[in-house]
Amino acid sequence: MKKLKIAVQKSGRLHDESLALLKDCGIYIDNGRDQLKASATNFPLEIYYLRNGDIPQYLKDGVVDCAIIGENILIEKGEGISIAGRLGFSKCRVSLAVPKTFKYTSIEDLNGKRIATSYPETTLNYLKEKGIEAELHIINGSVEIAPNIGLADAICDIVSSGSTLFKNNLKEVEVILKSEAVLAVSPNISEKSTEVLNKLQFRIKSVLQGRDSRYVLLNAPNDKIDDIIKILPGMKSPTLLPLAEEGWSSIHSVVNRDTFWEVIEELKEAGAEGILVCPIEKMIL
Ligand SMILES: Nc1ncnc2c1ncn2[C@@H]1O[C@H](COP(=O)(O)OP(=O)(O)OP(=O)(O)O)[C@@H](O)[C@H]1O
Ligand SMILES: O=P(O)(O)OC[C@H]1O[C@H](OP(=O)(O)OP(=O)(O)O)[C@H](O)[C@@H]1O
Ligand SMILES: [Mg+2]
Fold it and tell me: CA torsion, points 141, 147, 149, 152, in degrees to nearest 10?
């Protein structure tokens, strides 16, 4: 089978979780730490370790078929590259920020100002859309320092927890876009490689659905079953099994990770006992 070429960030914020995702997909990679290229031993996949910022060009040129990349980089320079799926990690936003002392009331306040950024296209497009003209200073890192050293009046950069802005006496004033890691696909991918990509995507989806869900098992007296089942959605409907003790049953179901504490409280109130919550490795709907 033809090998699918996938780009993964060589080092940085996306690297570890990208490899963990492939591992959870059951893909084993023959790895030397400083290798630029590696092969999976049990799946037709070749991994290219590249810089996140360089990956769009490799996708456009068809050097790689697909990539795990920050969505914000695709928005900046990924024209023509499609997104096959969102991966749920490296969540952040690209925002405009100004010094805390700047009396900011609206985007109009940035007219004629100097803005430092590593994302010139994203910044310019946003300003253009709002009818604002500003002078851009393109820098590759430590953008948040620019206002403090007199290089710019404002910045446009990645914000996650906000602690870098806070440490540099800046405040976020406009969110331009939200981003997370995505699976991006080259416009030049071949039909044969698309077949492998579809298999990979199926595995990724099963892993992500599993990560988002919890398997819940509980015991309940039979006269409480109807009330409990109303609380539990399940994949199709909850599983119901009789316990050895007469008049009792075991109920199994799948609950969303983000809501399961609330669901557990409701279940207890409805008469559930001995509740177990287990992780799900893969979930295929
Ligand atoms: N603080 C953060 N919190 C969450 N996600 C982030 C954060 N900073 C960056 N990201 C996301 O992770 C991606 C990679 O960031 P990182 O700083 O590791 O590399 P980079 O500077 O974009 O790239 P390169 O690999 O080219 O050096 C970004 O494009 C963004 O999508
Ligand atoms: O809101 P926060 O949680 O503080 O995160 C935001 C910071 O994270 C990123 O930098 P990173 O740590 O990746 O350093 P880099 O500039 O070397 O890429 C980004 O460029 C911001 O500076
Ligand atoms: Mg960074």
Answer: 90
**Amino acid at position 43, single letter:** F
Third-level CATH fold of 213-279: Alpha-Beta Plaits (3.30.70)
Is the CB of 53 inside a 6 Å radius of any atom of ligand 1? yes
Taking the model in full, what pTM does it have? 0.93
- The tally of CA atoms less than 13 A away on the side-chain side of residue 150 is 0
Q: Which atom of ligand 2 is nearest to the CA of 167?
A: 4
Distance 229 CA to ligand 3 centre (A): 46
Which CATH fold would you assign to the domain 92-179?
D-Maltodextrin-Binding Protein; domain 2 (3.40.190)
Topology, domain 4-88+180-210: D-Maltodextrin-Binding Protein; domain 2 (3.40.190)
Nearest atom, ligand 2, residue 164 CA = 4
The number of the ligand 1 atom at minimal distance from the alpha carbon of 180 is 31
For residue range 45-100, what is the model confidence (pLDDT) as tens digits?
999 999 999 999 999 999 999 999 999 999 999 999 999 999 999 999 999 999 99
